[in-house]
Specification:
Domain Disease resistance protein winged helix: 443-512
Family: Belongs to the disease resistance NB-LRR family.
Helix content: 25-40%
Radius of gyration: 31 Å
GO molecular function: ATP binding
Domain NB-ARC: 187-359
Structural class: alpha/beta
Domain R13L1/DRL21-like LRR repeat region: 698-818
Strand order of the largest sheet: 9-10-11-12-13-14-15-16
C-alpha cells in the first residue's frame, strides 16, 4: 500500500512536467533548434515511466514483494528528484524567453542582438541539459521496467494497459450489525429513519438519500443499524443490501440485486435481460435498497443503474453511502446527510469496548486515564477508535499505552493498521492533478485553518495548477479545492472576521498527506539535526518552531533545492534576513516571511528568479529593494498590514506577470510608481494611490481589465478633470469600490470626476469618502446596479441625496458626517416601478 501511495505522488509530479512539455512544444521552443527535439524524447521517456507507475499503483500487492518494495521506494525518490530537475529546467527556458519578449515585445520574430545571443546560448547548452536529464530518466526507467516485468510475470498481474484501479482491494460489506458496537449515532439514526418513513419527501416513486463522510467515519455502520431497525423492516416489503465499491460494474451490481431478491444465483449475463428481470421483481412493490460505498462520479452510470428502480411503489427509498458530495449531487433526490465525527466520550466507549474485553476491572482502572487521552487523538473517527482498541487489547501495562499515546498513527505496524487502509482508496481515487495539491498540505500544522483563495495562490505558484482553455488558473485551483471538499479531504469549519470561509483537515487525513509526501515535504516544529539525510531531497518546508533565526542563517546547505519556505511562527527576534540566504535558495517559488519583525529585505532577493509568491505581511518593512523588480516570474506579492511601508520600487512596472498585489496601506504611500499601468495581468489590487506625475495618474488603471474583488482608489484630489477620470475606464468586474479624496477641493471639478468614475454594473459595494460635490452623479442611484451596500461619509458640501430607494438590492446604507445635508425629500425613496428600498 505504501508503494501505491508513493507511486501516486510520483505519477502526479510526472503529469505536471508532461503538461508543461506539451505546452512548450506548442508555444515556446519551436524557434530553438535542438530543444524541441530533446523535449519530445524526454516526453516519451516520461510517458513510459508513468505507465509503469500506473500499473504498480493499480496492482501493488501482486507486483511488489517486501524486497522489491524497498528497491521501488529508492527508485521513486530518484525519480521525483529528476522530475523536479526537469521542471526547474523548463522554468529556466520559460524565464529566459520571457525576458527577451519583455525587452522586445514588438520584435519577437525579428533579428536583434539580445535575442540572437539568447538563442545561440540555448542551442549550445539547453539541448545538452535536457538530454542529460533524459538519459538519467531512461536508465531509471530501464531498471524499474526490469523489476516490474519480472514481478509481472511471476504474479500474473493484469496487462500493462489495464487501467482498472485497485482491483485487489474490493471489500464487501453485509447488512448484519451488532448495534451494541455502535456509539454516538442515536440522533443520526432517528433522523435517517424519519426520512425513510415519510413518503411526502418523495418527488417520484423512489427517493435517494446520500450518506456522506470521510472514510472511517461510520457511514456503513449507520446504514446497517437503520436497515435493521424494526420500524424500517415493517415499512418496506423488500430490503436489499449491495456493496458497490470503486470498481463500478453495472452488470455485477444489477445481478447482485436480483440474487438478493430471489435468493438464487442469476445465470443471465447480458444487461438487458437482467434489468428486465429486476424490473419485474420490483414492479409495484415498496423497497429499500442500500448501495454501500458508491464511488463513480459519472451521470451515465447512475442513470443506467437506477432505470429499473422507477417501477417501485411510492415511498421506495435508496440509501447510498459515499465519500463524495459530487456523487450525492448526481444521484440524490433528497439533501445529502453529512455524518459528523463522534465526541471524545463516544470514541472512548467504542475504544474501551475492544481494549478492555480481555482485562480485569483493576487493569481497566489503571489504564483508563491514558485510554481517554488516546481516544481524544482519534479526533472523532470511529474507525480509528476501533483499530486502536484492537491494538490496545494486547497491551497490558501503562508504559505500552503511553507509547501509543505519544506515537504517530502511521508508526503502527502496517499489517495492524487498518486506519490508512480505509483512507488509502480516497487518495488513490483522486485525479492526478489533485494529488500534489493534497500532499502539499502536509507542510502545514495539524488543525491549520485553510482559506481557499490563499491556498489556491500557493498551488498556482508551485505549478500544480495547469492551464485549461481560457479559464483563470485561480478558478481552476478553486475547482480543485472544491473537489477536495466534495471528496471529504477538507471540512468546513467557520466564517472568519473577514467573512471568509475557513476549512480544516481531519487529523488522520492530514497524517495521510504526510504519508504520501515523506521525501519532499517537511514541517520543522522542534530542533532536528539540520544535516539529517532525509532533508537532501526536501522541496517544500515550513518552519514552526522558535529557532527560525538559526535555520535562516546556517541551515541552507541542506536545503539548496527548496521550492517552498514558509514560516509559521510569531518569532519577533528576527529583524534582518541574511544576504547569503537568497544566494543559496535559488529555486524558491514560494517564500513566506510574514510576522517576523523584519525591517529590511536584502537586495540579493533578485537571485530568486523562479520566485512566484512572496508574502511579507505584518512586518516593519518601509520599502522594497529595487532589485525585486527583476523577479519576472513573480505572481503574488503580499504586503498586508505593513503599516510603515512608504514606497514601491521605481521599476515596479517590470513585474509584468504579477497577478496579485495585496497592498492595503493606502494612507502610507503617496503615489504608485511610474509605469504601474504595465501590470496588465493584475487581478488583485486592494489600493491604488493616484499621483500627479507622468505615469502615476489614475489612467494607469485603464488596461487592468482583469481586476476583480475590491479596490480603494485614494488621493482622488489628484485627478484634475472628467476626461482623466474616464480614462481610468473602471469597467472591470469589481465587487467593491472605495472612492476617497484626502482633501476637499473644487465642487464642480469633483462632481465631474465622480461622474467619470462610473464602475461596472455588477458592483455590490460602494463607498465614497470626503467628496466635495454638491450632488451625486445619476449612476449612483441607477436601478441597473446590483448594489447591496452604500457608504457616504464626510461629503460635507452635498445638499441633495440621490434616489437610493430605487436600488432594488440595496440592504445596507450608511450616511455619516454630511453637514451640508439639511433635509431629505421624497425623491430619496425613488420613483417609478421600483422605490421605497425594496430590499
Amino acid at each position: 500500500m505504501e508503494s501505491a501511495f508513493q507511486s501516486g505522488i510520483a505519477s502526479a509530479s510526472l503529469q505536471v512536467v508532461l503538461e508543461k512539455i506539451a505546452d512548450f512544444a506548442v508555444r515556446e521552443t519551436s524557434l530553438i533548434l535542438g530543444v524541441d527535439d530533446e523535449l519530445r524524447k524526454l516526453r516519451r521517456t516520461l510517458q513510459k515511466i508513468r505507465a509503469i507507475l500506473d500499473n504498480v499503483e493499480n496492482n501493488p500487492v501482486s507486483v511488489l514483494n517486501n524486497s522489491s518494495n524497498e528497491a521501488w521506494k529508492m527508485w521513486l525518490v530518484d525519480l521525483e528528484k529528476l522530475t523536479y530537475s526537469a521542471d526547474d529546467l523548463l522554468n529556466e527556458i520559460w524565464l529566459d524567453i520571457s525576458w527577451v519578449n519583455a525587452d522586445n515585445p514588438d520584435d519577437a520574430n525579428k533579428s536583434n542582438p539580445v535575442r540572437n545571443k539568447l538563442l545561440s546560448s540555448f542551442k549550445l547548452t539547453m539541448p545538452h541539459e535536457i538530454s542529460k536529464i533524459r538519459k538519467e530518466m531512461e536508465d531509471l526507467s530501464t531498471e524499474m521496467d526490469s523489476l516490474f516485468l519480472t514481478k509481472f510475470s511471476e504474479s500474473g498481474a493484469h496487462k500493462i494497459h489495464d487501467k482498472t484501479p485497485l482491483n485487489n482491494n474490493f471489500c464487501a460489506t453485509s447488512s448484519l450489525v451488532d448495534e451494541g458496537f455502535v456509539f454516538g449515532r442515536e440522533q443520526d439514526k432517528v433522523e435517517i429513519i424519519q426520512m425513510l418513513l415519510m413518503d411526502e419527501f418523495s418527488r417520484g416513486n423512489v427517493s435517494v438519500i446520500p450518506l456522506v463522510g470521510i472514510g472511517g467515519i461510520g457511514k456503513t455502520s449507520l446504514a446497517q443499524i437503520v436497515y435493521n431497525d424494526d420500524r424500517v423492516v415493517n415499512n418496506f416489503e423488500l430490503r436489499i443490501w449491495i456493496s458497490v465499491s470503486i470498481n463500478f460494474d453495472l452488470i455485477r451490481i444489477t445481478k447482485s440485486i436480483v440474487e438478493s431478491l430471489t435468493g438464487k444465483k442469476c445465470k443471465l449475463s447480458d444487461l438487458d435481460p437482467i434489468q428486465f428481470k429486476l424490473q419485474n421483481l420490483l414492479c409495484g412493490r415498496k423497497f429499500l435498497l442500500v448501495l454501500d460505498d458508491y464511488w463513480t462520479e459519472k451521470y451515465g452510470d447512475w442513470d443506467a443503474l437506477c432505470s429499473p428502480f422507477r417501477v417501485g411503489c411510492r415511498g421506495s427509498k435508496v440509501v447510498v453511502t459515499t465519500r463524495s458530495t459530487l456523487v450525492s449531487s448526481i444521484l440524490g433526490t433528497l439533501p445529502a446527510f453529512h455524518l459528523k465525527v463522534l465526541n471524545d466520550e463516544d470514541c472512548w466507549e467504542l475504544m474501551k469496548q475492544r481494549a478492555f474485553s480481555n482485562k480485569g476491572p483493576e487493569e481497566n482502572k489503571n489504564l483508563e486515564e491514558i485510554g481517554r487521552e488516546i481516544a481524544r487523538k482519534c479526533k472523532g473517527l470511529p474507525l480509528a477508535a476501533k483499530c486502536l482498541g484492537g491494538i490496545l487489547r494486547f497491551k497490558s501495562d501503562a508504559e505500552e499505552w503511553d507509547y501509543i499515546l505519544n506515537s504517530k498513527m502511521w508508526e503502527f505496524p502496517q499489517d495492524k493498521n487498518e486506519i490508512f487502509s480505509a483512507l488509502i482508496l480516497s487518495y488513490l481515487f483522486l485525479p492526478t492533478n489533485l494529488r500534489k495539491c493534497f500532499a502539499y498540505c502536509s507542510i502545514f500544522p495539524p488543525n491549520f485553518e485553510y482559506e481557499m483563495d490563499e491556498l489556491v495562490l500557493l498551488w498556482v505558484a508551485e505549478g500544480f495548477i495547469q492551464p485549461r482553455g481560457q479559464m483563470r488558473l485561480e478558478d481552476i485551483g478553486s475547482d480543485c479545492f472544491s473537489e477536495l471538499i466534495c471528496r471529504s479531504f477538507f471540512q468546513f469549519s467557520h466564517v472568519n472576521l473577514h467573512n471568509q470561509s475557513i476549512y480544516k483537515m481531519h487529523e488522520l487525513i492530514h497524517c495521510m498527506a504526510q504519508l504520501v509526501s515523506p521525501n519532499t515535504c517537511f514541517r520543522l516544529e522542534e530542533d532536528i539535526p539540520l544535516w539529517h539525510p532525509a532533508f537532501r531531497n526536501a522541496r517544500h518546508l515550513s518552519l514552526s518552531h522558535e529557532s527560525v533565526q538559526l535555520i535562516l542563517s546556517k541551515a541552507f546547505t541542506c536545503f539548496r533545492n527548496l521550492r517552498t519556505l514558509i514560516t509559521c511562527t510569531n518569532d519577533t527576534s528576527i529583524t534582518q534576513i541574511p544576504y547569503e540566504l537568497f544566494l543559496k535558495l535559488q529555486f524558491l517559488r514560494v517564500l513566506t516571511l510574514s510576522r517576523m519583525d523584519i525591517d529590511e529585505l536584502p537586495s540579493s532577493i533578485d537571485h530568486l528568479k523562479h520566485l512566484r509568491y512572496l508574502n511579507l505581511s505584518e512586518n516593519h518593512i518601509q520599502k522594497l529593494p529595487e532589485s525585486i523588480s527583476n523577479l519576472l516570474a513573480l505572481q503574488t506579492l503580499k504586503l498586508k498590514s505593513c503599516f510603515e511601508f512608504v514606497e514601491l520600487p521605481t521599476n515596479f512596472g517590470n513585474l509584468i506577470n504579477l497577478r496579485h498585489l495585496d497592498l492595503d496601506v493606502k494612507h502610507q504611500l503617496n503615489y504608485m510608481p511610474s509605469g504601474f499601468g504595465n501590470l496588465v495581468n493584475l487581478q488583485t489590487l486592494f489600493a491604488f494611490i493616484v499621483g500627479r506625475g507622468r505615469g502615476c495618474g489614475i489612467g494607469e488603471l485603464k488596461n487592468m481589465r482583469l481586476l476583480r474583488g475590491s479596490i480603494c482608489i485614494t488621493n482622488l484630489e489628484n485627478v484634475l478633470n472628467a476626461m482623466e477620470a474616464k480614462d481610468a475606464n473602471l469597467c472591470m468586474k469589481l465587487d467593491k469600490v472605495e472612492l476617497e479624496w484626502n482633501c476637499y477641493g473644487d465642487k464642480i471639478d469633483q462632481q465631474e470626476v465622480l461622474a467619470g468614475l462610473q464602475p461596472h454594473k455588477n458592483l455590490k459595494e460602494l463607498t465614497i469618502t470626503r467628496y466635495s460635490g454638491l450632488m451625486f452623479p445619476s449612476w449612483v442611484s441607477d436601478p441597473v446596479y446590483k448594489l447591496t451596500v452604500i457608504r457616504l461619509q464626510g461629503c460635507l458640501s452635498c445638499s441633495i441625496l440621490p434616489s437610493l430607494g430605487q436600488l432594488p438590492l440595496l440592504k445596507f446604507l450608511h450616511i455619516e458626517d454630511m453637514s451640508g445635508l439639511v433635509h431629505i425629500d421624497h425623491h430619496f425613496c425613488g420613483f417609478g416601478s421600483i422605490k421605497g428600498f425594496p430590499s
